[in-house]
Amino acid sequence: xxxxxxxxxxxxxxxxxxxxxxxxxxxxxxxxxxxxxxxxxxxxxxxxxxxxxxxxxxxxxxxxxxxxxxxxxxxxxxxxxxxxxxxxxxxxxxxxxxxxxxxxxxxxxxxxxxxxxxxxxxxxxxxxxxxxxxxxxxxxxxxxxxxxxxxxxxxxxxxxxxxxxxxxxxxxxxxxxxxxxxxxxxxxxxxxxxxxxxxxxxxxxxxxxxxxxxxxxxxxxxxxxxxxxxxxxxxxxxxxxxxxxxxxxxxxxxxxxxxxxxxxxxxxxxxxxxxxxxxxxxxxxxxxxxxxxxxxxxxxxxxxxx
Amino acid sequence: xxxxxxxxxxxxxxxxxxxxxxxxxxxxxxxxxxxxxxxxxxxxxxxxxxxxxxxxxxxxxxxxxxxxxxxxxxxxxxxxxxxxxxxxxxxxxxxxxxxxxxxxxxxxxxxxxxxxxxxxxxxxxxxxxxxxxxxxxxxxxxxxxxxxxxxxxxxxxxxxxxxxxxxxxxxxxxxxxxxxxxxxxxxxxxxxxxxxxxxxxxxxxxxxxxxxxxxxxxxxxxxxxxxxxxxxxxxxxxxxxxxxxxxxxxxxxxxxxxxxxxxxxxxxxxxxxxxxxxxxxxxxxxxxxxxxxxxxxxxxxxxxxxxxxxxxxxxxxxxxxxxxxxxxxxxxxxxxxxxxxxxxx
Lengths: 306, 345
What we know:
The structure holds two protein chains of two kinds. By secondary structure, chain A is mostly helical. Chain A has twelve helices and two strands; from the N terminus they run αααααββααααααα. Chain A has helices at about 1-30, 40-60, 65-90, 100-115, 130-140, 150-175, 175-185, 185-190, 195-220, 230-245, 250-270, 280-290; strands at about 140-145, 145-150. Chain A has a two-stranded antiparallel sheet. In chain A, helix 2 packs across helix 9 (about 195-220). The radius of gyration of chain A is 19 Å and the shape is globular. Chain A starts with a helix and ends in a 14-residue tail after the last helix. Chain B is an all-alpha fold. Chain B has one domain (about 1-340): ABC transporter involved in vitamin B12 uptake, BtuC (Orthogonal Bundle). Helices cover about 70% and strands about 0% of the residues of chain B. Chain B has helices at about 1-10, 20-40, 45-70, 80-100, 105-130, 135-155, 180-195, 200-210, 210-215, 220-245, 255-270, 275-300, 305-320, and strands at about 155-160, 160, 170, 250. A two-stranded antiparallel sheet of chain B has the order 1-2. The two termini of chain B are about 15 Å apart. The chains are: A mainly alpha, B mainly alpha. The interface between A and B is large, with 45 and 40 residues.
């Protein structure tokens, strides 16, 4: 039972980052009906720029907490600009084109970002980790009744939950949030009602990218960083969004947590020789969800009009 | 179906008879054998390899074109089918040539077996996934491709047959020559062409243009979509098998998402639906990417994939229908005189 609780906590902390990323997918899908393939790459850029910022801060002998703050804030700014630029240069000229055309453009953007980061003077193909002192500082654990929780997990929870709270506040309580809801409900009608759709879409991309950058830095603290890290991770987060019901914000949260927990349990409870197959669990879930209930847990059924 | 058949007749008034065309293609395949000998004798190894790879790229691009371009089903899992073919063919070849089978005969057999297994994979993927549409289908095929990758990466061997997990499979006998690759390319292009411009081909095109309308016209959309998937997967498997027998070594990373995207790029750039356009794109992009490899000597960074990505984005922004649109290079489109009745069959 103790072991179960331990795995549950780890699973939830992994799921929290999936949820952050899934929120970006789901918001963009909500306003544009587009699967933003480049979102996984924004997450990767978040991790990479976090890596650069933290190294820079440590070179100036900043204390650990300050260095981490610089990394989180810096990469959030970088990713916000990146998200805005992606939308402005790649997707905006294609507004109104067939969805497939935009989807292929999104794939192109994702391929471009991967390979630009792959250049040696930006990051290079070698997998790297955050500096050892950062990892050491974060891996100290607190034991509560036999269950160990590291500082990293606490940071992950605190950040994810507070960001989600802020996002919920923005969406439910501000004018921009109202506009965002209007656009995702009916794009054309919102435009006729005087909502500046282009501005709303930019805001959506910026919000999504900030969430992705935080997820990126948090995962950078735990795993190795490579230019291709966004591919699998982004796909799994997308699965989380589909599982929760794409377009639904609470759905993305539930989906992310579910995927995180299932994956961690699969990794832990599968026999050792099958552990590697745990990566496939998310995709198997995806196939089943798409077959049984393509709209996901919280999604609503849309009627197709001819 | 009678209506479709009639429409096809109007389209094809006087045309070269089928047997003559078949004979021509057979002659072309046979001609590849002496051409292969000539190339082997006169070209350096590098150029010969590039030519062979171009042919295999044509097979891949054309087979995906049947799914993406002609039937309009956006698939992102083509590398997965390729992997099934490559691993089936590779592991059988390695095992049975090891126990003394004739490499050529074994390769011929196992390339086809690899293709058939890939077709089975296409069927397994296709039947459930094709109930989905548009971007959901893209994601589902992507998921299947990723599952195939993870399974290959995590499996050491199946029975006596080595899969090799993450390190990959090496020591496959080298069988593929330009002759093999060119033959595969010709057969693929001819098959897809004949299918696309037949009465059944109209059904594929109808599904691409408007699935709901096609279903309303009485076309069994699921059947045609699965057919396109199975045939496309078969040829992808064949290409995969030939790749393995060309490089002598395969590893799971080769058959990941990125590979699928590269093939999609060929189809998109060539013009979704245009068979000749896609063949042209396969040739041009291969030459371009080899030229960019030389560029690396100048810039010291690998710009190949960056250029690929930019090309994809710019094409979508400026010419979303691709190089050729849905037009063919050679197809003679006679002006149909609809005021005259169609000739009786």
